[in-house]
Structures are given as structure tokens and as C-alpha cells.
Amino acid sequence: MNAKNAVPRTRNAEDTQKRILKAAKREFARCGLAGARVDVIAERGKINKRMIYHYFGSKRELFQRVLEEAYIDIRTAEQKLNLDQLPAREALEKLVHFTWEYYLKNPEFITLVNSENLHKAVHLKKSTTIKVVSRRFVEMVDDLLKRGVKEGVFRRGVDPVQLNISIAGIAYYYLTNRYTGSIVFERNLMDKAALEERLKFNIETILRMVCVESQWSS
Amino acid sequence: MNAKNAVPRTRNAEDTQKRILKAAKREFARCGLAGARVDVIAERGKINKRMIYHYFGSKRELFQRVLEEAYIDIRTAEQKLNLDQLPAREALEKLVHFTWEYYLKNPEFITLVNSENLHKAVHLKKSTTIKVVSRRFVEMVDDLLKRGVKEGVFRRGVDPVQLNISIAGIAYYYLTNRYTGSIVFERNLMDKAALEERLKFNIETILRMVCVESQWSS
Amino acid sequence: MNAKNAVPRTRNAEDTQKRILKAAKREFARCGLAGARVDVIAERGKINKRMIYHYFGSKRELFQRVLEEAYIDIRTAEQKLNLDQLPAREALEKLVHFTWEYYLKNPEFITLVNSENLHKAVHLKKSTTIKVVSRRFVEMVDDLLKRGVKEGVFRRGVDPVQLNISIAGIAYYYLTNRYTGSIVFERNLMDKAALEERLKFNIETILRMVCVESQWSS
Amino acid sequence: MNAKNAVPRTRNAEDTQKRILKAAKREFARCGLAGARVDVIAERGKINKRMIYHYFGSKRELFQRVLEEAYIDIRTAEQKLNLDQLPAREALEKLVHFTWEYYLKNPEFITLVNSENLHKAVHLKKSTTIKVVSRRFVEMVDDLLKRGVKEGVFRRGVDPVQLNISIAGIAYYYLTNRYTGSIVFERNLMDKAALEERLKFNIETILRMVCVESQWSS
DNA sequence: TATGAATGAGTGTTCATTCAT
DNA sequence: AATGAATGAACACTCATTCAT
């Protein structure tokens, strides 16, 4: 009781919001938007349920915020790769590597995006921030491709959007379908060896698609 | 609420079950397992809600059946491709093409699989039929790869499971993320030209990964 | 669900009705009127559910018939005791004994009567047969008491209705409350020794109430 | 349906729980566990249905609590009789009197116990409180019997449990079967004179069973 | 006489959200 | 700022009963 009063209100408010967002991210990722329970979010985050409505208005708005933050996180991480400071081929490899690792370590991202697509991206549409960071991301890959061509290591005419989708897709599908995949392919897709093998396969797939032949005849 | 205008065209148990499954597939695909409403399934299928429980026991069991049938459908369609009667390179191209088209024309399949993965594949685990048809599917691609190597058109050492996942992934990701993707990439991913371009990109990606160089020097 | 293996015996209406009544008695006794399930009656009796409605009209009417038969059964059994052919004291003892044994061997009777009282005897009220057999029963005890007085073994002025109620009550309560009683009294009320002890206690209670002192000074 | 005119007089959790318990007791007593309707409990108690689940979890758990309280109530009332401060014979008479009056004025108790026995006492088994108060009750009668023997007014060797069951039984049966009984015996068992007569009969029955003859030769 | 399919009103339970303090 | 009580609409699921053959 006394301890609570000792904490400044402003700091408390911010902390509460963070705790809500964290708990909400987890619950939305685990259960989807429809399956998520506000009660569970409150309980897990040790927050009074009323605070959720105080700070975020509704379950849907909370979902939107969670989603927004998730997108901002990955886009921020991508920018931090500083791909423009590496030779093009290495940079591309690093991007494929990063995408794989990020999805692997942040499985909520995938589930949240799936949920959002189930809802036809109505929440994402409302966010302007997303559009800004997304554009920067596409530009980054576009720059990389152009530089690779200039360096003579990449083929001409590879569309950066299509490439982005492929880089994401070959990682995303493997990981989002980890459960059904393990049944269909009768393999544990998630053990260490399997994961390493997949990353190698993904890198090879992308490099073969993008690089000029001389980069592969070796 | 029950469907007020439920007209039992024929007093036909089989037909009723089919109507339930059809309506359920649609609703589960649209809303996920948690978001789907049994009432809606009954109304849309013009079925008395009671019949759903009579024939399928519960919402979850109904979901399981829908999912099972969805897997059986795609696996059956794949077998009908008769890939073994085509030259290996053509056969592979046909498989990539088919996968793309199937996902495009049966978007429910993707959403159902996403839902099932959200639930950690608990429903699929219970199905034995799935395991049988899945094995046959993996063997089909394995045979194809081996034949391609024998024919001298495919590289050695490409893992059929990894290839399958890539073929699926580059199509699946594009289509499951159609809504968020259209925002992130500021493009309508679903217009005719975009779809055609993507299919071409996918075929090229897979062929470059699998075929020997001579098949690409042209 | 209907009984799948319902065998259409040679159009045996009487047998079907008996099977329905037997299954219904069991179910009503087990679960009460509200808790009983028509489906269960049909399944257990291997009868088509529709037949229940054909022969008995409704669940309530079926209950009424079951109850009626239960009352007729006990009253018939009582008449068969031929108490008038025994010395009064012996006859009374026999009646107490019989009541105990009957309740013990026909636990459904007690539960059915409890259910009927929960429903304020609306079903019993409709039955004229019950009134006839009941009157005969009360007369039987009345005759016995009068004879006992004449024989000099029973006290004067014992009301036959009150006596009947006590004879029934001390047996009925013990047995209807077998489950709660076993907890409250921390004793297994239903093992062989306990049952024998109770019967003895009951006989003594009734004889002490009815007989003249000389019958007890021994 | 929720109670439309639910007016939260005071925003008081304890009061709400009491109102729920009161309404539930009435409904369970009137209709049994299976026949009782949660909607009716909510409406009659002017409580929001949701609160029932919030405080008690489920219909069955609510029933358990109602039953538990009913047992505690009667056991508490019995202790308040202070039988140990009266001569043994008077105390016994008072107990018989009390039991009759209690059942008469609290008819729900009987119906609840009947319902619980229909369910084989599964709810009562879970309650530890019941065992404590029950033991105290049995001890009370045991003490009374022993004291009566010492005072020279009671016979030796009367089992307190058997006696308890008889005291309860002769009252319980009369009252639980008030409706069927009125038909079978063609008498209104519930008018004032009938009730008084029955109480007298019960007292006499028990005293004759317990007391030494000298107490009855007068 | 007998049956399996079908029905609609209802039944316990859950949920996101708001009120009062 | 924070909380626990309260709400009403909706939800999955069940039931006694009737229809069509």
C-alpha cells in the first residue's frame, strides 16, 4: 500500500500501459483477436481490467496498438542492420538470416499478422506510422538490389517487393506451420539441426534467385 | 438462432451433413475457430442448429472434420496432377503452378491451416487419414526430384521436404498476407497482373533452386 | 440419439410398452422428472423414441404411468401378505418387515414418490386407480389394529393413518437419505449388519407404540 | 433473461451473495437441481445472472453452497436448544418438537436433502464443514441418552444414531410426502389439527421407544 | 407399427464493457 | 489513478417433441 504511494503517478501510468501491452501481445498471439480474453490479459499483466479500457478504449483498439508496435519493432530492427555498409551479396545474406532469426525469436509477430489478415487488415489500415516505416523498409531492399547490380553480383530486373515477399515467405511459412508441418512431414521441424538446415536452404534459395551465375559456379 | 427458412429439400442425412460442412468451412475460414459462430453456420447452411451437434458433436469436432476434409481435398488434387507422366522439369513447374492456383482458388485452406496452427495442431493430430495422404504427397515430390536428377535436369541433394515447404511458402505467404501486404508494400497484390507476375516469380525461384545451370543459361 | 439396434420385433405393441415403462422407471428414479432424458429412456430400452410419444403422449404422461404402476405394485404386494390370517402382533411385525424390505429392494419407489411430491402430486391426483388401491391399504391396517385391540394385544386409540405413516417413515427416511446419512452419521448405513440392526429398531419402535405393556414387560 | 429491474441497492458484494443464495435456495427447493433454472434465480433475486457465476462458479457449486448453508442452519439451531440444561425426558421431547417444527417451517431443507440424495450426496461429500457440525449434533443426542439413563428415565442401549434417524424420519416422511400422502390417505395432512395430532403422535412414539416403562404407566 | 431426420424454444455459461467509489 | 462490483448481449449446447416415410 505504502510502496504504491511512493511511486510517482506519471511513472506508474507509463509502466501500467507497458504491462498491459506486454500481456496483451502474449494473449493475442496465443489466441487470436477473437480468442483472446480481456480478463486473461488483466490477470496475466496484474492490471486492473478497468485500466485497459482507460488507456486503450477497447479490446480492438488494444489489438491495434499491439500490432502497430509489433510492426514498428521489426522495421526498427531491420534498419539497425546497416545493410548499406556491407557488400551487396553479404548484405542480402544478412537480411535473409535476420528475417529467419527474427521470426524464430518473435513468434508472436507471425501470429499477430495472421490474425490481422483474418480481419482483412482493418486495424493496420488505420495506422499511419506503419506506412512510413514500411516505405523505408522497401526502399532499403530496393537500394540493396540496385547496388548489387552495380557491383555486378546481382541479376538485373529482380523486383524488390517480390523478393521481400519471398524472403519472408520461406521463413514465415516454415515457422507459422510448425505444428501442422510437423504432422504432415512427420518431422520435428523445430529441433536445432532442422532449424539450421532450413536457414541454409533459405539463404541458398534467395541467393540463387538474385545473384548472377558466376556467384554460384564456384 | 435457427434458420427460419430451413427447408429440408430432401430428408437426407448425407446432404445435411454436407451442407453443414460447407457452411462451417466458410465460417471457420472467415473467422477462425474462436471467432466462428455456430448460429451463423446454421443460418448460412439453412440447417437446424441441433443437427450440427447431432452429426458432429461439438464446434471443435466440426472444425476438425472441416480441416480434415480440406487437407484431403488438396492432397487428392495433387495426386490427380499425374506428375510422373511428365518430364521432370515440366512436372515441377506444374506443381508450383498448381500450388499457387489452389491457394488462390481455395483461400479457406490457408486460413483453416493458420487457425489450426494457432491451436497447435491439436485437431490434426487426432486424424489418421491425414498422415496417410501426407506421406503419399511427400513421396510424390521425392520421386519427382529423383527422376529429375536421373534425367540430368535437377541438381543432386535437394531435400524434398524443404522444397515442398518453399513451394508452399512463397505462394502461401503472398496470399495469406494479402491484406497486410497490400498496405506494407503499397500495392494491390491481388489484381490480375500482380498475380501473374507473382506466379512467374515463384516458378523462377523454384526452378533456379532445383535445376542444373544449363537449364537456366538460355 | 435413437437406439441403432432397435429390432422391430414382430409388431409387439405390448412388449414395447413394457420395455418403455421399465426403462422410464429406471431413468425417472435415477434422475427425477426434470433430470430424466427421453433420449436415454429410448436408448436404454432399445426403443425408438417416437414410440414413447406414440404410446404415452408426453414425458409427463409417461411419468404418470410409471408412478401409477409403482403405487399399484406396492399396494398389490401388501395385499398378498394376507395379514388377516396371522395373529395381530405377528401381522404388525410382518407389515413393518415387509415395508422395510420392499423399500430396500425397490429403491425406485422412494425416488419416484419424492419426485412426485416435488411436483405437488399433480400426476397422482389424476389417477383414480390409486385412490381405490390406497383405500384398501388403509382399511387393511385399520382392520389389523382393531383386531389387535380385540385380541387384547394392541392399545386402544392408535390412529391407523398415523401408524402407517410412521411405519413407512422410519424405513423411508433411512433409505432415501442413505447417501447424506452416511456422511452425517459417519457410518455406512447400507452394509448388511447396519440394515439388520435398523430393521430390528424399526420393529421395536412400532411394537412399543402399538402394543399393550404386557407385550413388552417380558 | 436477466432481472430487468435489478437495482443494486448498495454496491455490496456480501449482500449480493446473500440474495443469490436466498433465491437459489428457494428455486432449488421448488424444482430440484435439474429442474431449477439459473434464469429464475437471477430474476427472483433481482441479481444479474453473471454475478451468480462470478461468485459461485456454476449451478452445481451454487447448489452445494445452498445445501451446505441449509445443513449449517439446522445444526446451529439444534445447538441453541441447550438440551443439556433440561431434564433428559423434557430435553428429548423438546428435540422431537423442534425437529418437527423446523421441518415444518423450513420445507426447503427437506427438498434440498432429497435432491442431494438423488445425486448420491456428491456435493455434501465435498464439504468439510458439514462433517464438523454433524459430529457435534450426534454427540449432543448421545450425551442426552446417556444422561437420561443416569437419571433413570431412559432405557439402556438405545443407539443415538438410530434414534436420530427415527426422530427425523417420522417427521420428515409426513412432511415430504404431504402431497402424495394427502391423496393416499384421503386427508388434508397439513391443516392445523392434523399437524398438532401428528406432533403428539411423534412425541409419543419416541418417548415410548426411549423411556423406561414407569415413565409411561401413568 | 415403426423409424430416423428434423425442429425451436430454451439452458447453463461467457464475454467485453461500464458503474460507483 | 485505480479498483471491485455489476451488467446485458451473446454463446455453445440441450431438450422434448414432431415430421415424413
Fraction of helical residues of chain A: over 70%
Order of secondary-structure elements of chain A: HHHHHHHHHHHHH
Strand content of chain A: under 5%
Number of strands of chain A: 0
Mean pLDDT of chain A: 93
Most extensive chain contact? Answer: A-B, 59 and 60 residues
> Which structural category fits the helices and strands of chain A?
mainly alpha
Major beta sheet of chain A, specifics? Answer: none
Q: What is the CA–CA distance across the termini of chain A?
A: 70 Å
CATH class of the largest domain in chain A: Mainly Alpha
Question: What is the assigned CATH homologous superfamily of the largest domain in chain A?
Answer: Tetracycline Repressor, domain 2
Low-confidence sequence ranges of chain A: 1-9
Counting DSSP H or I runs of 4 or more residues, the number of helices of chain A is 13
Shape of chain A: globular
Q: What's the number of domains of chain A?
A: 2
Rg of chain A, rounded, reads 21 Å
Oligomer: homotetramer
